[in-house]
Design brief:
The chain is mainly alpha-helical. It contains 11 helices and 2 strands. Helices cover 59% and strands 2% of the residues. The termini are far apart.
């Protein structure tokens, strides 16, 4: 047990140091974390069932903590080195200070846990007040979303887009209600190309459909994605990257003026 706990702590320490010093570590850390989990010597420690369960819980907490550390490191690197340009280069005055990096990481964690607190997190990040009308709330939150879009990246085992946008992450987690909620309540623009791969949310779903088509291990997933694709395209006006016009990339307030 002690050996495993020590290995976990050393893993977190090494990940933290690496993530804060190397940009390329951010892209490779997901695979490294997964391999570390596979090589944890839990099966050879003759643990009791109780200790084995505690060990697994501890490992789960360590993995989540590690992912949070490198996500924060990713945001820090982007800010310090301007490593990833924002898809929309225009500067918008949202009349609100830039959210701290922890807020962006929290959004990923809340979506991962399907915690509806993400709604308040968005409001806090956009300086929404209790007296704001629904229309003003949409203007504020979407302005913040567009301005800091490149920081809304998430990373996890099973998410094929490294540091991909949280909307795509929600698809992987089968938490599509998140997308409907942020569009209907906050007017979020879901057509901005992801800085990680240059593709939109609709592109991602199409790619996932191609990936799962004919996969006998997940026979239902293709049908689920097909319905999601139709809903995004027909009901939420989602587009592929090659279909976008300059108007599609404007914040909510500006988009409404053009209609």
């Amino acid at each position: 047990m002690k050996k495993t706990l020590t290995l976990c702590l050393l893993t977190v320490l090494s990940f933290t140091v690496s993530a804060l010093t190397k940009v390329e570590t951010i892209n490779n850390l997901k695979e490294i974390t997964y391999k570390q989990a596979l090589t944890m010597p839990t099966d050879n420690l003759n643990l009791s069932n109780h200790n084995r369960e505690l060990n697994q819980r501890y490992l789960f907490l360590v993995m989540n903590f590690t992912r949070r550390i490198y996500h924060l490191a990713s945001i820090w690197i982007k800010k310090e080195n301007n490593a990833v340009p924002n898809p929309i280069p225009l500067e918008y005055d949202c009349d609100c200070p830039e959210p701290a990096g922890g807020h962006f990481a929290n959004i990923c964690m809340l979506v991962e846990n399907q915690d509806l607190s993400y709604r308040q997190e968005f409001r806090d990040m956009a300086c929404v007040t209790k007296t704001d009308s629904p229309e003003v709330i949409k203007e504020k939150v979407d302005c913040m979303w567009v301005k800091y879009y490149k920081y809304f990246g998430c990373d996890s085992i099973g998410f094929m887009v490294g540091d991909g946008n949280v909307l795509k992450y929600a698809i992987v987690l089968k938490f599509e209600d998140f997308i409907d909620s942020v569009v209907n309540n906050f007017g979020l623009n879901i057509n901005i190309p992801d800085p990680s791969d240059g593709k939109t949310l609709l592109d991602f779903v199409a790619d996932e459909m191609a990936r799962f088509k004919g996969d006998k291990n997940y026979p239902k997933r293709y049908g689920e994605l097909e319905k999601i694709y139709a809903h995004l395209k027909n009901d939420l006006k989602a587009k592929h990257a090659n279909e976008l016009t300059p108007q599609d990339l404007l914040p909510y307030k500006e988009r409404m003026k053009k209609q």
